[in-house]
Write a structure and sequence with these properties.
By secondary structure, the chain is mainly α. It has helices at residues 25-28, 44-55, 68-102, 107-129, 133-139, 182-223, and strands at residues 5-8, 11-14, 146-151, 154-158. It contains six helices and four strands; from the N terminus they run ββαααααββα. Helix 2 packs antiparallel against helix 3, helix 3 (68-102) crosses helix 5 and helix 3 runs antiparallel to helix 6 (182-223).
């Protein structure tokens, strides 16, 4: 689930959710006060589905080989966006656990919350390990930029953003002190803040990539 943060005592915390929203609701629902990394206002999911459906090869229709790289790239972007949404939901849960630990005076109680936090942290890697190969191209451990042939000599590059918990990804360290100190909890909150910003930037970039590729695909269909 997508989520946003508000500041509280120097840290940011998830806003209360009145209802459960579907994938991309936070990514695509921003109307006001856009920041540079905000996702463009567009129906990415609907556009992706329409583009992929319209260009799906039919048994009795000739296949347009020039469209294939664009369709494959859009499929990878769609899978990556769904996976980012799942990762962001885990980050939200981890943030709530760390915030709760700030209000626990008992070291034993904080240690239990540290265990729960670490379980959530490691679950992000499990999401990465189970990625569809199309999403893995863009956000997996061995992610690489996706070069899309647009016809002729034109190419378009979709950037890879590694989103596992390693230093090359989201940089989420384990709670080695088991939340024994409030300084460690503060560090964890800062790491989560950076992690969600990186996930947001990745999602914003892929939405812009999808917008461009959908437009390009529509142009090619109109010219066919």
């Amino acid at each position: 689930m997508a989520f946003s943060f508000t500041r509280s005592n120097g840290h940011r915390k998830p806003k209360e959710k009145s209802e459960r929203r579907g994938p991309f609701s936070g990514l695509l629902g921003r109307k006001n006060d856009q920041e540079p990394d905000d996702i463009p206002q567009m129906d990415v999911v609907g556009g992706l589905n329409r583009a992929l459906r319209k260009t799906a090869p039919k048994d009795d229709a000739p296949q347009h080989e020039d469209d294939a790289p664009i369709r494959e790239a859009l499929a990878s972007i769609e899978c990556a966006l769904y996976s980012i949404d799942a990762i962001r939901e885990v980050i939200e849960q981890a943030y709530e656990v760390a915030l709760s630990a700030q209000n626990v005076e008992d070291a034993g109680g904080r240690a239990l919350l540290a265990e729960r936090y670490d379980e959530l942290r490691l679950s992000i890697n499990r999401i990465i390990e189970q990625l569809d190969e199309r999403a893995a191209r863009l956000i997996g451990r061995n992610a690489h930029n996706l070069d899309v042939k647009l016809g002729g000599k034109a190419n378009y590059s979709v950037s890879a953003v590694r989103l596992d918990i390693s230093p090359k990804g989201l940089e989420l360290d384990p709670p080695r002190e088991a939340f024994a100190t409030f300084d460690e909890i503060t560090r964890v909150l800062e790491e989560l803040d950076s992690a969600v910003k990186k996930a947001d930037r990745a999602a914003a970039g892929y939405c812009r990539d999808a917008q461009f590729l959908i437009s390009r695909l529509s142009q090619e269909q109109a010219a066919a």
